[in-house]
Amino acid sequence: MQEIFAEYKTFIVFLHVISAVVWVGGMIAMRYAAHPSFIKIESPHKRLERIADALKRLFCIAAPFVLLLLFTAIFMIKGYSISDSEFKLFAYAKEGIWTIMFLNLGLMIRRRNKAEKALNNGDFVLAKNQLELIGKYMVPLNILLGVTAIFIGSYFSSVL
Fold first, then answer.
1. Could you tell me the residue range of the domain that residue 138 belongs to?
2. How far is CA 17 from CA 56, 70, 119, in A?
């Protein structure tokens, strides 16, 4: 794995960074650009439909990048021999952050899917409850964690 990393280091690091940018940037765009626009939709039913649809699109875009982030992280940890270095605690912290983000993403997808089913069944209260938690807490949590992980990665790039 170290040989592959040595040969394709720039490409692997690029894929890692762009994956983080797409995932975290997508959530920032959704929360702070799209969400305020959705709130202006007067029909609660249409608003919930638009939010559920936009989240589905975001998750479909982000999912391959989340997997790519995982694979490139493994290559980088092995390639830089971080597990055997003085920086292993930072690597573990980053792995932990991305793991929490991944689990949170899974819960968001589950809640969004429940909201879509509720919308299809005419249960707008359940749909609102499912989507509200995503927008208020789950996406902002992943943004905070993602920005923290990106900062740690930036630190790595300056010392490795």
1. 2-159
2. 23, 11, 36
Q: Are 112 and 135 in contact (CB under 8 A)?
A: no
Q: What is the pTM of this model?
A: 0.91
Amino acid at 43: S
CA-based torsion, 144, 102, 33, 117: positive or negative: negative
| Mean pLDDT in residue range 87-93 | 87
Task: Name the residue among 142, 151, 152 with its Cα closest to residue 58.
Answer: 142
Q: Which pLDDT does position 129 carry in this prediction?
A: 97
Which 8-state DSSP code applies to residue 43? Answer: -
Domain count, the chain: 1
What pLDDT does residue 156 have? 79
